[in-house]
Design goal:
- The chain is α+β, with helices and mostly antiparallel strands.
- It folds into two domains: 75 residues, no CATH class; 107 residues, Immunoglobulin-like (Sandwich).
- Helices cover 21% and strands 54% of the residues.
- A hairpin with a 5-residue loop joins strand 2 and strand 3.
- The longest helix has 34 residues.
- 7% of the residues are buried.
């Protein structure tokens, strides 16, 4: 083989190599381009869809059952005897301090019964509640009675009840019991007992169903061509 033939052969090999490299570059470029370009593809697909529905269910809860018990009760009160007035001869004039222990206002009535100390010695009845001696000291046995005194007392208020009652015997010595009639008010007590109560409530639940929907996806042109070829086969 002469020199010119060798050179020609080398040129052909170089040309073939350049064509192969160019073809590879073109293929790579086309592949990159196909993966860059995107197309929108709409197709009908079965998808899972959550369908809401309502359902009534029972539930148990504890609720208070209120019981009310009301009754009439007299006001609570306290008292204190203070020094008598002696400014008018021939009259018995005690000072009786009454204290309203309730948290509401009410009208109190006080009446004094005076007993002759010579007939009913004060020492025999000192600091004894009238209820404990009523059997031997009836109210009617008093020598005098004051007129009923009415006063309205506010919550916690203290008030002095005073009367000037003419003595039956001006020379006699008297001492007194006080009859107190307090107001009456209604008192209510409440008790709560928790019981089980069954109630209904509506809740929303969801069920899954397969439904057909048109789904639009954005895919590369390369992927589109592969799917097209695959589906045709």
């Amino acid at each position: 083989m002469n020199l010119s033939e060798k050179e020609l052969k080398k040129e052909e090999m170089k040309s073939r190599r350049r064509k192969i490299i160019s073809a590879v570059i073109i293929i790579i470029f086309i592949h990159i381009l196909l993966n860059i370009i995107r197309v929108s593809l709409t197709r009908e697909e079965l998808v899972d869809e959550s369908i809401p529905y309502q359902e009534v269910e029972e539930y148990t809860t504890k609720e208070p059952e209120i019981t009310e018990l009301c009754f009439d009760r007299k006001f609570h009160w306290d008292y204190e005897w203070t020094e008598w007035n002696y400014d008018q001869e021939g009259y018995a004039s005690p000072n009786f301090k009454l204290i309203n222990l309730e948290n509401e206002s009410g009208e109190f009535t006080v009446e004094f019964a005076f007993f002759d100390n010579s007939l009913y010695p004060y020492e025999d009845f000192y600091e004894k509640p009238y209820e404990t001696v009523e059997y031997k000291l009836p109210w009617e046995a008093a020598s005098m009675h004051s007129y009923p005194m009415k006063k309205r007392l506010n919550p916690g208020q203290e008030e002095i009840f005073t009367s000037y009652t003419e003595k039956k015997h001006s020379s006699s010595s008297y001492w007194a019991y006080a009859d107190v009639e307090p107001p009456i008010h209604k008192v209510c007590n409440y008790t709560a007992e928790y019981i089980n109560v069954v109630r209904n409530r509506t809740i929303t639940k969801y069920m899954t169903e397969k439904t057909k929907k048109n789904i639009t996806k954005s895919i590369t042109l390369w992927r589109f061509l592969i799917e097209l070829v695959t589906n045709n086969h």
